[in-house]
Amino acid sequence: xxxxxxxxxxxxxxxxxxxxxxxxxxxxxxxxxxxxxxxxxxxxxxxxxxxxxxxxxxxxxxxxxxxxxxxxxxxxxxxxxxxxxxxxxxxxxxxxxxxxxxxxxxxxxxxxxxxxxxxxxxxxxxxxxxxxxxxxxxxxxxxxxxxxxxxxxxxxxxxxxxxxxxxxxxxxxxxxxxxxxxxxxxxxx
Length: 189
Fold this sequence. Notes:
- The protein is mainly beta.
- It is 4% helix and 22% strand.
- It is elongated and about 55 Å long.
- Strands 1, 2, 3, 4, 5, 6, 7, 8, 9 and 10 form a 10-stranded parallel sheet that branches.
- The chain has helices at residues 17-20, 178-181, and strands at residues 3-6, 9-11, 23-26, 29-31, 43-46, 49-51, 63-71, 89-93, 111-113, 131-133.
- The protein contains 2 helices and 10 strands, in the order ββαββββββββα.
């Protein structure tokens, strides 16, 4: 049975496996905490907020993220695809998610605001109604993803092949539409 922690604020801590594994955190706030050396096992976060935290390189296998908000967090090379898929709900604001993986995840309605999302794997993910608000999507991969109703309007540097990605009713800006035409090797000015 896991230990349960409710409505606690954690500040400026460096966590290791023993401090988080087999624990459930609900309505907790983590400020300026470092999780980068963690190899999470059996951890649950419900209605939690992470502010200015470091997760780069952390192994978050078998972690439940249920209505979790990440603000200004550095989360490079994190494999979200290994998270518990039951009630998986996350939102990101001003985060660095470069080289992370959301492969095959259902992340309907997730918001990414002012994020760096460089070379992120969204292959075969369900991105229905996701909002990418002012995000850099350079070299992110969307092959076989369901990107129906996704809002890309204010984001940039994406390349999406409409023949390999569902994009029905997705929203794009006219300035960035070249990202949908890249495979045709044409010049848009």
